[in-house]
Amino acid sequence: MSPWRLAAADPATGAWQPRPVRAGDSVWVRPAAGAEAARLLWMRDEHIAAVLELPVRSHEPAQLKVEATSPLRLWADGRPIFHLPAKTVVRPARPWNPAKRLELALLIDATQWATRPAGEDPAPPERLRLLSDPELRIEPFRAWIEGIQALKPVFPEGIAVSIVAFGDQAPPYPVAEDLQPTFVVSPDIASLRFEAAEPTALLRRLSSLEPSPGGDAVDAVADGLHACVSLPWSADARRLVILIGDSPGYSLLHPGPTGTAAFPRRLDVDSVTIGLFDSGIELATVFNTLDTEADTDIQRRLVQHTRSQYRSLASRPSLSFVHSPDRPLNPTDWAQALSRRWDWSGRGACPAFWTEEQP
């Protein structure tokens, strides 16, 4: 028997499951939903010789062919396979959470309520206008309140909701008064709490949120997500954050178009979403296209970048949504997506799973 083994995760337990392989063998693996890379162990007998990393293109199964074992040559449909040191840490994937209680944080982009007056004479200097009417501010979120009520049969032990808003960090240089952010995160972390998901109370809390200028195009998405980690989550509840906005967050791995981030931030969305995952918190995203027209090339590229970022931040592809005035979000769709069972989710680089499925 060949001393060489390839280990992927057992889809039933998540534990490593080594399989003997020889030159010419072919196997199928599947990444965890939401993972950016799938990792396997290359073993000789019981000892790990290397950690193998396969970038994720989609969440379809991938075929691996062993062309040689010593030295290892592995083929993966034209994708690169990175050979990492044997002691490389592999972040575990997370299984389905069958909890009957839901704790939900709505993370609202308060900068989407800061707009420039349309059709007005630009002289005197045009200023940002804050959407002061609470009814207009909360109108796009009524679908979410309906969707939360639709989830109650799925979570018979109750649903608790926290509402958090983010603005932006103050620029480290002088800016016009109308561009100065009102806050980074509101309410402050010490005041964050969950309350019963009663529709009237939720709408009242949403209407009490204040709008904030954002300064540049990038806003405090990462700060808002980081604040959600500090919520008083219960150990026996399913934990979920829903990000609703039209602003991108600061990213080191996937920065936005040149000029959209005027200064570096203290937190980035890539690191913070890892923290959410490690804390057992799922993330859904809604790209809320309140402004349907992008007039310039930089605006179009920014919209495309934000859509892509929100899609990648979601814990699973099925938890990424788009809302627009001409195509409003159907509350039934997202409620069904949240209640749909899944097997394993990941973030960053997580184990690959053995599968018999083939695309």
Helix content: 10-25%
The number of distinct helices, counting runs of at least 4 residues, comes to: 7
Strand content: 25-35%
Rg calc? 23 Å
Query: Could you name the CATH homologous superfamily of the largest domain?
Result: von Willebrand factor, type A domain
Whole-number count of domains: 2
Mean pLDDT: 85
- CATH architecture identity of the largest domain: 3-Layer(aba) Sandwich
Main beta sheet: strand number and arrangement? 7 strands, mixed
* Poorly predicted runs of 5 or more residues: 115-130
Q: Strand tally, please?
A: 21
CATH topology of the largest domain: Rossmann fold
Oligomer: single chain
Shape: globular
State the end-to-end distance: 30 Å
Describe this structure in words.
This protein is of the alpha+beta class. It folds into two domains: 4-95 and 347-354, no CATH class; 102-341, 3-Layer(aba) Sandwich (Rossmann fold). The chain is 19% helix and 28% strand. It is built from seven helices and 21 strands. It has helices spanning 134-138, 142-150, 199-207, 221-229, 269-278, 297-313, 331-339, and strands spanning 4-9, 16-20, 26-30, 37-44, 47-55, 62-69, 72-75, 82-84, 94-95, 102-109, 114-115, 129-130, 159-166, 185-186, 195-196, 238-245, 281-288, 320-323, 344-345, 349-351, 353-354. The strands form five sheets. Strands 10, 13, 14, 15, 16, 17 and 18 form a seven-stranded mixed sheet that branches. Strands 1, 2, 4, 5, 8 and 20 form a six-stranded mixed sheet that branches. α2 packs across α7 and α4 (221-229) runs parallel beside α5.
